[in-house]
Write a structure and sequence with these properties.
Quinone Oxidoreductase, Chain A, domain 1, alpha/beta, 20 strands, 10 helices, Rossmann fold, 6-stranded parallel β-sheet, ADH-like_N, alcohol dehydrogenase, zinc, ER, EC 1.1.1.1, 7-stranded mixed β-sheet
Amino acid sequence: MAHVRTSLRVSCSFHRCLDIRPPSIKTLLPSRGPSPSSNPKLLPTTSLLLSRHSSNMTTYSIPKTQKAAIVESVGGTLTIKDNHPVKQPEDLKPGECLVQLDCTGVCHTDLHAAKNDWPIPAKTPLIGGHEGVGIVVAIGAHTQDSPVKLGDRVGIKWLAYSCLDCEACRKGKEQVCEKGQYSGFTVDGTFSQYVVSYVSHVTPIPDGIASPEAASILCAGVTVYRAIKYSGANIGDWITIPGAGGGLGHLAIQYANAMGLRVIAIDTGAEKRDLCLKLGAEKWIDFRESKDLVKDIRDATGGPGPHTTVITATSPAAYEQAIDYLRPGATMMVVSLPAQGKLSCDIFFTVTKGITIHGSYVGTRQDAREALDIAARGKVKCYYQLKQLDALKETYEGLEKGTVVGRVVLDMKQ
């Protein structure tokens, strides 16, 4: 590929002016030591000199094209392209930033977006992904009061943008903002080497956590952390985690332990059992081997059942069973999103047992910082397999079959 080098100097006077926010879109239903990335290898092509301080210029090379995984149309095949355009710094709008990715996690939500099997369709053509970690290599001119600077290591989450001014945003529920935009769903995501995001919504990555681990915390970790945080569970309470050996579940075990809860892990298979017990689950129940799952769960708690459940399994049956095994006054945290699932429960016993059903959808910018901080202090560790972008299709197949243990993270530097 022929490389054309040009130089551009942007003075820090561009930094404080105007903040133009993206247009409204249709409201989305709730879907979802130094780090290796602190000095990633940068791809050579267009030379760009950018800095917020004219006395300390930083040089980054921004290529014209990049490698990306793209679904061209609804129901289309996932293809890997080597010549997808990179948005150039001079084309960034105020408030936008360009992030060169080190790595990105793969989430079940990405599979749903690729298949377009949710009630709300994803954009096409689509670059999926919403668990990216990299460095800021450009910031749009006239961006006002940017909380990040060039060279910062940041994360790209599911929530790419919220208005920060509507009732939901003002009440700390920005993830359900009516003007929200979503990485890898309504805007292009992180299955590419470069991604455009917003300075007000990228998440600073703390020291003490490697980029591949941070990637999965940005979605799976934040999602289960917030669910447990708002479940009302107290220290010493029992919590069940259906889907405990998966991407969300294995992190939920650790966050629950960090909050002083007693964990019953529910999943199937020896590999997942070993992982769950290693991570601190007090009890393990294999739902395929159990003759009476409800009884087994109650017995594990000494009789009355758990105080809360955070359902990370994508089977609708996991929700139906919860009403039967939860103790009176318990809370069901609805987290996973089956493609066509309906929440079916016995109304009589939901009422007479005083069960609270609480939908919990990813997390806010503050939730993300808290979840990352806990992980950076060594309380939570993400177990992942590091693969190349070319392995995305086989990863989707593993997610569909339920054979993925922990998380899959893609190396985007190649």
